[in-house]
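Recap slide: Capsular biosynthesis protein, sequence and predicted structure.
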Amino acid sequence: MGMRKVRKFLFLQGPHGSFFKRLAQELQKEGHKTIRVNFNGGDWIDYPKGIAYKHSMKMWPEWLYNFTLHNEITDIVLYGDCRPLHRLAILRLKGSNIKINVFEEGYIRPHWITYELDGVNGYSQIQEQINKIIEDRRNDQPFVDSFIPIKYNMRYMMRYCIRYYLFKWLGVLFFPRYKNHRPVNSLYEAIMWIKRFFILKLKRRFVLKKARYLTQSNTKYYLFLMQLYTDYQIREHSPYTSMKHTLIETIYSFAKFAPTYTKLVIKNHPLDSGQKNYGKLIKNICNELGISGRIIYLDGGNLPALLEGSLAVVTVNSTAGLQAIHHKKPLKVLGTAIYNSEELVNNATLDEFWNNYKKPNQQAYTRFKNYLMRKNQINGSFYDPEGVNQLLQQIVKKLCN
């Protein structure tokens, strides 16, 4: 039997916390080589032994290309394929023999993360294959691997996020050319996260009570699922420049075309840091249109229950759209999404959708979900100790395959 090939993994930016560091350690135990590139102080605190990149963004593609040649890199590992550093890396190395391993939050949530080659979401190869996937009878076979429920560890995630942003701010003098991929000051974002944590605790009971009333009453409502204003899904894979733009268009359309007996429930993203006052924006729009009694803004609430009680759902391209399909709810997608098939979502325009929607094809959804679970969903979490342990057991095998 021949000797196994030693692979050389180059890690770029990862999720906040210990996941990339521990993944590198596990790969080393298997006899492989690992290198990490740090771009700021936050990267450094997560992975202190990495190589510091202090050059400009303009120099990055050629620096990376030469670095991979000199060090005989076989694999790139990164989290999120839309960050400018990662996008440039993928484009520069396209066509080479280097394997691009991309991690992202799960398409199926909770309890899962996404792992694909070359790209995820709008850059995933699934975009071109979805019709074949849902026509393939082999995908009727359910996913049967073991499954471990992973709890949502908000405290763990916030601790690592705040630490990352703090050290990114402290490390500015050491990484003067680094440009944040998020359109906000890191220190300010960390402060807002801390503030948000306590505000949500205070509001939790009120929000849950409000959401419970909606789901237990006979209120006829549509559900709009918000996304983070920093989300590249909005900036890269939709016609919108911001959530504000999306909200304005959706509320105006609802006011003009939706049946007058219906309401629109707008649910904020659970990880929103509170930097944008969406409540005030929505209130101002409603006052302008004279529909204050028909719009309900929820900064929290149980998503499955809200989905179950809704007439239909609107989103730009949130992965929560798959949960809407799971609950057999008509869905309108305003951007590019991996599940954007006429069998799963509505082709009607937004203006038409309020009065002319259809439910998703459940057989098509079952096939699509089974395909995802087998192909690119991995049981675990980036932001929970047990979830990380669960991921590492599976991912090392996939990376070395």
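The chain has 15 helices and twelve strands.
The longest strand covers residues 99-105.
(End of recap.)
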